[in-house]
Amino acid sequence: MIQFKNVTLEYPVTRTLALDDLSLQVGKGEFVYLVGHSGAGKSSFMNLVLKRALPTRGEIRVAGETLARYRGRRTALLRRRIGTVFQDNLLLDHLNAYDNVAFTLRVTGVPQREWAGRVTTAMRTVGLEHKKHALPVQLSQGEQQRVAIARAIVADPPLLLADEPTGNLDPDHSREVLRVLQNVNLRGTTVIVATHARDLVETFRHRTLTLRKGRLVRDDPYGGYTL
Ligand SMILES: Nc1ncnc2c1ncn2[C@@H]1O[C@H](COP(=O)(O)OP(=O)(O)OP(=O)(O)O)[C@@H](O)[C@H]1O
């Protein structure tokens, strides 16, 4: 699903070396954690996969295709096929949970007759079918995070990128979110989770990639949190 070959990312203005000669592969259907100290390069990795940033050197392939060959509209289409759960993509305040989730279907061009069924399935996956009429302010942070996951998965993306999906959540809600992500993975979506949540990485074991100063220093198939 993802292949990085000797990828280096140096941010232009500050000349920060965010990723340094990174080579790795993530196969279809895998569940992978990305861990590392703050500034290790986790978000930069996600941004490269989404082509929000361009590598200074090296080659990136997503779903078998070289990202450098994607241009304009194709880049937009690629992004639409990748579900994202990021701290900064908040729910739209004026829309209820159902409409927030349906919004993804609108922008991905899914026919309207499929919306109700798909939204209901996604809301059920995150355990919030009964809250579909609630506005974001009427939901707890954990529930809002689960709606954000429902929104990310409703179009059945082959790949889901989650950057700190349990940031700001208490331990119970964090575990709930992790279970949801695992369910999504069991349904066939490749899931990559960048996180600082040691307890989750230790409890729900999956392959774990550790970055340190932009370098891959560990690739543990059985998981475990060692920075
Ligand atoms: N847009 C940018 N311009 C310049 N430097 C950046 C930019 N974004 C990130 N950096 C720098 O690149 C390095 C990697 O940052 P990145 O956000 O990828 O780390 P991270 O592992 O996601 O950190 P955190 O766990 O704190 O989110 C850091 O030194 C950071 O300061």
Q: Could you explain the architecture of this structure?
A:
- A hairpin with a 2-residue loop joins strand 9 and strand 10.
- The chain contains seven helices and ten strands.
- Helix 3 (97-108) packs across helix 4, helix 3 runs parallel beside helix 5 (141-153) and helix 4 crosses helix 5 (141-153).
- The protein has helices spanning 42-49, 72-80, 97-108, 115-125, 141-153, 171-186, 198-203, and strands at residues 2-10, 17-26, 31-35, 57-62, 65-66, 82-85, 159-163, 190-194, 207-212, 215-220.
- Strands 6-7-8-3-9-10 form a six-stranded mixed beta sheet, with helices on both faces. A four-stranded antiparallel beta sheet has the order 2-1-4-5, with helices on one face.
- The protein is an alpha/beta fold and 227 residues long.
- The chain binds adenosine-5'-triphosphate.
- Residues 11, 14, 16, 18, 36, 38-44 line the site of adenosine-5'-triphosphate (ATP).
- Residues 11, 14, 16, 18, 36, 38-44 line the site of adenosine-5'-triphosphate.
Summarize the structure.
Residues 2-227 form the ABC transporter domain. With 227 residues, this protein is of the alpha/beta class.
How do the strands of the widest beta sheet line up side by side?
6-7-8-3-9-10
Sheet-strand content, in percent, reads: 25-35%
Radius of gyration: 17 Å
The residue ranges in which pLDDT falls below 50 over 5 or more consecutive positions are: none
Task: Supply the key terms.
ATP hydrolysis activity; ABC_transpr_LolD-like; binds adenosine-5'-triphosphate; 6-stranded mixed β-sheet; 4-stranded antiparallel β-sheet; 227 residues; alpha/beta; 7 helices; 10 strands; 33% helix; single chain; cell division
